[in-house]
Amino acid sequence: MSYTQSRLRRVSEHVRYFRETSENQETKSSEEWKSSTKRETLGALEQELARLVASAKEGETEGARREMSGFRNLFSRFLRAKTHIEWKAIQPLPEGAIRPYKQLPPVSESHITQMLSKLVVVKLNGGLGTSMGCKGPKSVIAVRNDLTFLDLTMQQIQQLNRTYNVDVPLVLMNSFNTDDDTQKLLKKYANVKVSVISFCQSRYPRINKETLMPIAKDMGTADMEAWYPPGHGNFYEAFANSGLLDKFLEQGKEYCFLSNIDNMGATVDLNILNFVLNSSGGQEPPEFVMEVTDKTRADVKGGTLIQYEDKLMLLEIAQVPKDYVDEFKSISKFRIFNTNNLWASLGAIRRVVSNNELDMEVIVNPKHLDRGMDVIQLETAAGAAIKNFKNSCGINVPRSRFLPVKKTSDLLLLMSNLYDIDNGSLTLSSERSFPTTPLVKLGSSFDKVKDYLARFQGIPDLIELDHLTVSGDVWFGRDVSLKGTVIIIANHGDRIDVAPGTILENKIVSGNLRILDH
Ligand SMILES: Cc1cn([C@H]2C[C@H](O)[C@@H](COP(=O)(O)OP(=O)(O)O[C@H]3O[C@H](CO)[C@@H](O)[C@H](O)[C@H]3O)O2)c(=O)[nH]c1=O
């Protein structure tokens, strides 16, 4: 048999594999799915994916086949489902869907060690620091006292393990973008007594917006723009495929606590752990819990929990029809949002993954590549799994459980005296007389971490700050205090130096102010 013939045979075998391992939902008589164009598109994609798999290096075929089969299923869900929700079909949340944190049953001290022995902590570490102008994984950005997200997370788990004399493992879900750097970094923790295990999430092909076909032509292409990590919703499948899920279940672990590595408030909470592990009032324990918190003007982009088609569902902004985006952002209509602190039963994850029951909404993320091509990447969000689990619910947690760092303005708050730090945990300073955090907006000159750091000779005292807006070419000296509402605006071409020791309280500063040494 010639090389071409044997390759063609391999390609058709891979196509057959995709069809055999496809999710069974296609048998459903959905009108949309019946459309022959969609079936043809899927058929063409299967051919392309089979060609990609056939191009995999020896020894890597099986992994590539499993990964492309996962992508094939995601793509077929994308073809079948609507990408936006029917706004008018949103139902009121049922009674008890979101429980107040304060009403969780109390934890008995004597059970803590046993409860922790059933827990696995997972951090989503697939993201890059690019949006903050940094190279490499986001988790290597220094947050406080030169300690990175990863350092602080390690300290938190180490402290937990020491306090209760347990060995809660830390699992990092990396992406192909962050895996190498993270593996190198982990070496520096060789002496830290925390069991850290990492695995890599899937690498899926970006597809051309016009043709809907992968832009990659072979698995080994050096073109890194041809691939993407398919969102944190990929966790369940990737975790199961890595073998770790079975391993932890064998070790007697029962639950995982999953959160964004950039959320410094996502520490292990014993009240929630107790709630998920122990049924109360004759109720079955929930298989899945989403921590939500009251929405503020700073969180308008986060996902929210809604009731839809008689199930709890995570609604992300990308799924909201254009005309309703303002309504979605309103803090009076949607009062809570998803912190992405999620608790899931490991046994239930195994069940839904092996039965192919994980039906998460597909989020279409359009991208424009440097070479001028428009592509889309199909993603899912981890919280979207809520509807596939039994007895799922939300818990409305205190704001302190959500301390994300998405922008340098978040970094400014965490670096300041507003927060105290203790063994990797950041808590709002007791010196602040009210519990809300200030609303901070820094202009685009502060977007990159390097530029932001250069513009502050020292981090100002923010204990009494309510609101700060800074725009234009503004520089801060040492020992500055900002109180109440402070607005500093340097017009285009002007520069403002806030002199060392300045106290600004309820002030608007504008124009051109330079104080130079002589
Ligand atoms: C896209 C992607 C992200 N990640 C990691 C990076 C971050 O640590 C974490 C969150 O990713 P982000 O893309 O920043 O997601 P984000 O916009 O914050 O949205 C999530 O977190 C929000 C709270 O910050 C929620 O309100 C949203 O419902 C939830 O989807 O997951 C992965 O590990 N793999 C991925 O593929």
TrEMBL record:
GO biological process, one term: UDP-alpha-D-glucose metabolic process
Keyword Nucleotidyltransferase: yes
Superkingdom in the source lineage: Eukaryota
Recorded GO MF terms: UTP:glucose-1-phosphate uridylyltransferase activity
InterPro entries linked: Nucleotide-diphossugar_trans, UDPGP_fam, UDPGP_trans
Purpose: UTP--glucose-1-phosphate uridylyltransferase catalyzing the conversion of glucose-1-phosphate into UDP-glucose, a crucial precursor for the production of glycogen.
Similarity field: Belongs to the UDPGP type 1 family.
Protein name, entry field: UTP--glucose-1-phosphate uridylyltransferase
Species, as recorded: Mesorhabditis belari
